[in-house]
Amino acid sequence: MPLPSLTPSKSEQIAHTLRQLILGQSFAVGEQLPGERVLGERFATTRITVKDALQRLEAEGLIYSAGRRGWFVTPPRLTYDPARHHHFHHWIKSEAREASTTLLGCEQQLADGDLCHWMSVAPLTPLLAIRRLRAIDGRAVLHVTHHLLARRFIGIEQEDLTSSLTTLYAERFGIIQGASRLEIEATAARGEVARSLMLAEGSQVLRIRRLNFDGQGQLIDSDTEHWRPDAIRIQLSVPAPCTAQP
Question: 6 exposed, middle or buried (CB, 10 Å; 0-12, 13-18, 19+)?
Answer without folding.
Answer: exposed
